[in-house]
Design goal:
Elements (H helix, E strand, L loop, with lengths): L2 H69 L3 H32 L6 H20 L15 H14 L5 E2 L16 H8 L3 H7 L1 H6 L27 E5 L8 H10 L7 H6 L9 E5 L15 E2 L2 E2 L25 E11 L4 E15 L1 E2 L5 E2 L12 E7 L14 H17 L8 H9 L2 H14 L21
Antiparallel strand pairs: 1-6, 2-3, 4-5, 6-7, 7-10, 8-9
Length: 476
């Protein structure tokens, strides 16, 4: 071999070694970015859920204080307590977003404009639609207390002024709370990937019966009964109006006061109270509504190894069983973090996404003196939450609302209305609009029907794991 050839081969070997070294650096940076995003997402979700638990405890303390004031017929004090509770339920969870963002920032996440943009737009909606009403939205939204929407918008703006290092994924905007295929991300991804197994398991009837965009049912309208809760990290409680004696007898009222800080009330005082029996009083209860549609509620969490409310009842991949006293769905927080990673070898940038869910847990002493689920006191909220845990994303629900995903929320807010009225138009770079264009093609749906006819037997339900967002479905 000539001397020049040796030098050439040596150069090629050196270049190969150099490229391998760069790839190793890129791989290391990617893994480090993933770990950083995961740590930040987990910390953010735990911080938000911890705040939810503290808020519920404070709400419960106020409920007990309300009982004591009502027993003494202190009407003005009762009214002050209810007003404080209403403000806590609407404004308190917004502060959880600030705490989540601080936790993400401490774990290396930078503030992101895309996380902030949707909420900035939403503040404008609160100030125009909620407060003033529009031709499209009718009358202003009913306020849970006078001046609520102005305070709510200001609270969100105050958090945004600090910047957001994480995004809240399970924000529940009024009137956009799921229950419709067009509000499910999985529907669009199934179209994009021609995932006919998803349609077989979840929407085969739709695939077979659909003709054109006129077939869609209207999107869910606003639920005025839920407007006392914050849309951000919703506590899922309700302001129930009625006599306390309609849900608790005197012995049960005494039990709650003894167990949760009020002390026993003199029996004659309790029996002579006209406020305790006043049906104009407001008491805060855990909201057991919306069970079975994938939303949060304070009903059962699991039936054995299946998620409660899942009509198809397939097994959820968990090990062991949940203790009965913790088997309640309740409120939760889902936070998303994104870490940008620069690939040196290919001169490109990518990002690592991580979504994590956490929820507060606690127990109560029920009317028989036993440890029980937090709703066991006839859903009356008491200060009983003691710890938080990370939980699998799809055991919580709400992730499809994805406020941290600017493109998704923009599609829901600005693109679905015109689509339902006029059909698919110019996608303008919107991934979800492109999928709706594909969905409207008859041949596309017919190919899915044929595939399912001959191959449905090969479809196997997924068992979770990672996913395109980089988070965990059945992790933790």
């Amino acid at each position: 071999m000539r001397r020049g050839q040796v030098a050439l081969y040596l150069l090629m070997v050196l270049v190969g070694i150099f490229l391998i070294a760069l790839l190793n650096v890129d791989a290391f940076d990617f893994v480090r970015g993933k770990n950083r995003a995961q740590n930040a997402g987990d910390a953010a979700a735990l911080a938000a859920a911890r705040k939810q638990g503290r808020l519920l405890n404070e709400l419960g303390k106020m409920n007990v204080a309300h009982i004591l004031a009502a027993a003494k017929n202190q009407v003005a004090e009762c009214d002050d307590i209810v007003m404080a509770q209403r403000k806590l339920v609407l404004l308190g969870p917004v502060e959880a977003l600030r705490l989540a963002s601080r936790a993400a920032r401490k774990n290396g996440m930078a503030d992101r404009e895309d996380f902030e943009q949707i909420l900035r737009e939403h503040v404008a909606v609160i100030r125009t639609v909620y407060m003033g009403g529009t031709k499209e939205n009718g009358e202003p939204y009913p306020e849970p207390y006078p001046g609520a929407w102005g305070e709510y918008a200001a609270a969100i703006e105050d958090v945004l002024a600090d910047g957001l290092a994480c995004g809240p994924d399970n924000v529940e905007f009024y009137g956009a709370q799921g229950g419709h295929y067009l509000l499910m991300k999985d529907f669009y991804h199934a179209i994009a990937g021609e995932n006919w197994c998803w349609f077989h398991w979840h929407a085969e009837g739709l695939l077979r019966s659909y003709n054109n965009y006129h077939d869609w049912a209207p999107l869910p309208s606003r639920d005025e009964n839920s407007m006392e809760n914050s849309e951000i990290f919703n506590l899922h409680v309700r302001a129930w109006q009625g006599a306390l004696t309609d849900i608790l007898d005197t012995n049960e009222i005494q039990h709650i006061c003894r167990a949760y800080g009020g002390g026993e009330i003199p029996q004659e005082e309790l029996e002579s109270s006209f406020v305790i029996t006043n049906r104009e009083q407001v008491w805060f209860l855990f909201d057991g509504g919306r069970q079975g549609d994938g939303g949060y509620n304070w009903g059962r969490w699991f039936n054995g190894l299946s998620l409660a409310g899942d009509d198809e009842g397939y097994e959820f991949p968990i090990i062991g069983e949940i203790k009965p006293e913790y088997n309640v769905r309740g409120c939760a927080a889902i936070c998303r973090c994104i870490q940008d990673v620069e690939a040196v070898a290919i001169e490109a940038e990518s990002s690592v996404k991580w979504a994590a869910a956490a929820k507060p847990f606690g127990t109560v002493e029920n009317f028989d003196g036993e440890t029980d689920v937090v709703t066991a006191l006839n859903s009356f909220v008491v200060p009983c939450f003691s710890h938080v845990r990370l939980v699998p994303l799809d055991s919580v629900g709400g992730e499809d609302l994805s406020t941290a995903d600017y493109g998704w929320v923009t599609h829901i807010r600005h693109h679905l209305g015109p689509y339902l009225e006029h059909g698919p138009g110019n996608a303008q770079g919107c991934f979800y609009c492109l999928q709706l264009q594909t969905w409207e093609i008859d041949a596309f749906r017919e190919s899915g029907i044929r595939w399912i006819k001959y191959n449905a037997g090969t479809c196997v339900r997924g068992t979770g794991g990672g996913g395109g967002r980089g988070g965990t479905s059945h992790g933790h």
